[in-house]
Every structure is written in structure tokens, then in C-alpha cells.
Write a structure and sequence with these properties.
heterodimer; A: about 270 residues; mainly alpha; Fumarate Reductase Cytochrome B subunit; two-stranded antiparallel sheet; about 70% helix; elongated; disordered C terminus; B: about 240 residues; alpha+beta; Alpha-Beta Plaits; 4-stranded mixed beta sheet; two-stranded antiparallel ribbon
Chain lengths: ~270, ~240
């Protein structure tokens, strides 16, 4: 596709175009990210299940007693429950440390974060219209979105701030770092940070697993691919970027092949160098 | 089932600290801390009618311990025999129970980073032995026994001779370490070592009064939002894309 034919703003598609686009796939997630996502999902399930059963002091407790008793019995003792919670938490921390080190340039560099999860004017509009749409209060169409929509961005911002808090406070409690006072506060922060993520997690899971319009996003977390039609309709700015990039490559390949056709083998190419 | 208690005869106690040392060596108590210690409360009278007053401080294994509900992880519990114990595998050393004890009986051990305190030498008692401090006391000022053993010395001292509990009008949680001896000595010690009101850590206060509500509100709000969206989805029906 030549540059000129890539639309700069979303335009209505013909049925034929939509059909073709729905057949074409674009790569959205690296296989490492797909694996990391599901590893993370399992860790969260285990840590929430065990962690919520570890808080038993009256006043502190937030889960019903029957649940806590059930978990204690499932693990034999509360001490086992705590050991399991710590073992899984430490594994999680080490895995994400590796992700942070090896994925820094690709996923966590400030420029990448600004582009992928920074909130822009379109995002503000998107949040407003999306909310109204859910309540059936508007017919406006959603503004074009990048690789991640404003909702996903907000969730990412929440997770990116809370996860380091959870990991740090977990380490402070596990190894009793610095002081007793700090351990006491780490306990509170660990709970609040996890609670905030859970409140976002409800939306994340609903959107991913239940909400029909985002179903391709769910499958993309398995295959790593999304169909072009979904990308065009839900993540236009990202789709545009991918297409421009594809064009550049096509042109480069074309140019390269032109150059190689013109280039005749000159044996004395290096002769002029002293 | 037993209900353990200790009686300390203040008339016999000369403040030699043998119990302190025996306990420290029995339980490897780190320097600067103690599970039990003898604290001087002052002197009475003038020579030759002169006496020193001592108070033996340790965990009282109270009937209604304030440390048990203060523990967020459930590490501190009370056994059926009345002994209040700390499960070291569950304790994270947050110090919530330390400030909750009116008798200052608990400390966070710098050796293990867990809370430690007197447990009436539960491990020894299980083997049929007396607590280390009781066994060591050269004056036999410390007595240990079962309050349900009606023929026992401890039962006699507590229920027949009216041994004293260190309580105040406000802080009456049923300590199971009793004191006998001269009334004026007991009163003097009671003035010097009045139990202080149980306290709550700032972090604990924030958890119970603020953090829990905040998390419930946040999770509840998104849950409701999702429920609205879900029912709308059911009502409207599914469609792959909006056009």
C-alpha cells in the first residue's frame, strides 16, 4: 500500500474492505509478553487468595471467617499459607525484575511509556464518551486511540505505580527491613496498593473476558495477534503507525532492489583508497 | 484442662535477678531485652526496720489479653490453658502487640525480628517441669501452678489468701500473675508500675479506620460500575463492533 492511500483519520470502510481487513492479522504482543501476562494473572490469583486469608486480626480482617478457615485448612496451617504467599511473591518479584532489566528499552523507557500510556487530549474525550456510551447517553463516536486506549492506559498507570509499592512493602515485611515502624506501615501500604489494583482489575477482567467489543484484545493475549479491522476501529492511531512503518519497509526493500539492479559488479571498487 | 498462673511473694523476693538470668539463658534473650525482670520500686522504712520493694514484670497471660486482637496476622493467640503465645512462623514483627500490652511485656527481638515474650516456659511445662525462673528462684518467691488444681499451692494463694492482681479501675484484663506479701509493698509497687492503657500503632489506626474503607469503596465502586455495564450488555445484546 503506497503512503498516500493510508488514511490519516478514520474513514468509513466498504463492506469489502472491512472483510479483507478482518482477515488480515497484525502482531500486537511479543510472545514473552503473552507469557508474562498469564504468569502475572496466575500470581495475582494465588496472591489475592492467600494474602486475603492472612489478615485475621479483628479490625484488620476484611474477608469472612469461613473463607479464612477454609484457606488455612487447605494449606494445613496459617504459617504454610504465609510461606506460600511469600514464595510466590518473591518469584513474581524476581521475574518482573528480569522483565524490567531485559525489557527496559522496549517497554519501560520513559519515551516508550509516554507514547504508550501517556494520557492525551483524545484520551480525555475517549474516557468521557466511553462512560456515556456505557450508560447509553450519547451517540458520539470515540476519538482514535493508540496501541492502548485511555482505559487501558489508566489501568497501566495504576498498575505501574502500585506494583513497585507491593513488591517493596512485601520485601520489607518478609525480611523485616530497616525498622519495626516501617514494617507496620509496609503492611498498610501493601494492602492499599493491592486493593487499588483489584479495583482496576475488576474492569480489566470484565473488559477482557466479558465485554464483547474487546474480545479481539482478549485473543491477542493468547495469539499475540489482532485482526486489522479491530485495530482500525479500536486503535486507529496505532493501526496508522503500523501501516506507515510497513510502507517504509516496502519502500526500503524496493529501493534496495533497485540499487542492486543498477549496481554492476565493479572489481576495482576499493582501488582508490590509499 | 489446666489454667496456669503464677504467684510472686514480694516478701520473699530480694531482687537478686536470678530469675532474669535463668530466663535469658533458657531462651537466648538478646541483650537489652528481657522476658522477665525484677524492677525496684523503692524502699520502705528506716534502719533497722528497712525493706526494699521489688516488682517482677513479665507477661501476665491475661484472661482478656489486649495483645491478641491487636495482632493483624493472628500470630498471637491464647491457648486453652491460658498461656498467650506468639507463633514465630506467622509473626512479621510489626510491633502492634508491643504497644497493646499494658504491662510492657513484649519486645521485637533484634535477633529474630519477631516478637518475643514470656510464655510460662510452655515447652518445659509440657515436659512436666517448672518454668526456668520458678525453678531458679533461691528464695522460692515465684510459684507456678494450675488454678484448676484445688489442692495446689497456687490455688490456695489466689482463691483462699486473696493474692493481688496488678489492675486498675480502667485496665482490668485479668492478669494471671498474682502478688502476695505486705499490703504496703504491693501498693507501692502498684503505684510505680501501674499498667498503661493499651495503645494502637498509627499504622494500625490508619488500616482499621481509613485504609479498609478506602479499599472497600474503590473495589465496590468499580464492581458496581461493571455490574451496570454487564446488565446493559445483557439488555442490549452482544455486537462485535459499533459502527
Amino acid at each position: 500500500m503506497p503512503f498516500e492511500t493510508i488514511p490519516a483519520i478514520p474513514v468509513p470502510l466498504t463492506a469489502a474492505q472491512a472483510e479483507i481487513m478482518s482477515q488480515r492479522q497484525i502482531k500486537k504482543h511479543h510472545v514473552a509478553i503473552v507469557l508474562l501476562h498469564w504468569f502475572n494473572a496466575i500470581v495475582w490469583m494465588l496472591e489475592l487468595a492467600t494474602g486475603s486469608a492472612l489478615v485475621v486480626g479483628p479490625g484488620y480482617r476484611f474477608m469472612p471467617l469461613w473463607y479464612i478457615t477454609m484457606m488455612q485448612q487447605a494449606f494445613g496451617t496459617s504459617a504454610n499459607l504465609l510461606r506460600f504467599h511469600i514464595a510466590v511473591g518473591l518469584t513474581w518479584t524476581v521475574v518482573f525484575l528480569a522483565y524490567a532489566i531485559f525489557g527496559w528499552r522496549h517497554y519501560l523507557h520513559a519515551e516508550v511509556l509516554r507514547k504508550e500510556i501517556g494520557i492525551d487530549a483524545d484520551d480525555i474525550q475517549w474516557l468521557r464518551i466511553r462512560t456515556l456510551k456505557l450508560l447509553n447517553r450519547t451517540k458520539e463516536s470515540l476519538p482514535p486511540q493508540g496501541a492502548y486506549n485511555a482505559g487501558q492506559k489508566l489501568y497501566a498507570l495504576l498498575v505501574y505505580t502500585m506494583v513497585p509499592v507491593i513488591m517493596l512493602t512485601g520485601l520489607i515485611m518478609t525480611f523485616h527491613l530497616i525498622s519495626t515502624t516501617l514494617v507496620a506501615w509496609a503492611m498498610v501500604l501493601h494492602f492499599v496498593a493491592a486493593g487499588m489494583v483489584v479495583s482496576g482489575l475488576l474492569v480489566h477482567v470484565y473488559m477482557g473476558a466479558v465485554f464483547p467489543e474487546e474480545r479481539p484484545a482478549f485473543y491477542s493475549m493468547i495469539t499475540g495477534l489482532v485482526d486489522e479491522l479491530y485495530a482500525y476501529r479500536h486503535h486507529f492511531k496505532w493501526w496508522h503507525e503500523v501501516k506507515v512503518e510497513e510502507c517504509k519497509w516496502a519502500h526500503e526493500i524496493e529501493d534496495a532492489s533497485l540499487i542492486s539492479e543498477q549496481a554492476t559488479p565493479v572489481g576495482k571498487a576499493g582501488a582508490t583508497t590509499p | 484442662m489446666a489454667r496456669y498462673a503464677m504467684v510472686i511473694d514480694k516478701e520473699r523476693c530480694v531482687g537478686c535477678q536470678s530469675c532474669t538470668v535463668a530466663c535469658k539463658s533458657e531462651w537466648d534473650v538478646p541483650n537489652g531485652h528481657a522476658r522477665t525482670r525484677v524492677r525496684p520500686a523503692g524502699t520502705r522504712g528506716t534502719y533497722p526496720n528497712f525493706s526494699s520493694v521489688f516488682y517482677v514484670s513479665q507477661c501476665n497471660h491475661c484472661d482478656h489479653p489486649t495483645c491478641v486482637p491487636a495482632c493483624p496476622t493472628g500470630a498471637t493467640t491464647q491457648e486453652a490453658n491460658g498461656i498467650v503465645t506468639v507463633n514465630k512462623d506467622l509473626c512479621i514483627g510489626c510491633g502492634s502487640c508491643v504497644v497493646a500490652c499494658p504491662y510492657g511485656a513484649r519486645y521485637v527481638s533484634p535477633a529474630t525480628d519477631k516478637v518475643d515474650k514470656c510464655d510460662f516456659c510452655a515447652a518445659r511445662v509440657e515436659q512436666g517441669r517448672e518454668p526456668a525462673c520458678v525453678e531458679t528462684c533461691p528464695a522460692k518467691a515465684k510459684m507456678f501452678g494450675n488454678l484448676e488444681d484445688t489442692g495446689g499451692k497456687v490455688f490456695d494463694l489466689v482463691y483462699r489468701e486473696g493474692a493481688h492482681r496488678f489492675e486498675t479501675h480502667d485496665i482490668a484484663i485479668g492478669p494471671n500473675v498474682y502478688y502476695t506479701g505486705r499490703q504496703d509493698h504491693i501498693e507501692m509497687a502498684a503505684v510505680s508500675f501501674t499498667p498503661h492503657p493499651p495503645q494502637v500503632l498509627a499504622a494500625g489506626f490508619v488500616w482499621t479506620k481509613l485504609a479498609k474503607k478506602m479499599v472497600f469503596l474503590a473495589v465496590g465502586a468499580t464492581f458496581l460500575g461493571q455490574a451496570v455495564a454487564f446488565f446493559r450488555q445483557l439488555a442490549v445484546g452482544e455486537k462485535q463492533f459499533e459502527d
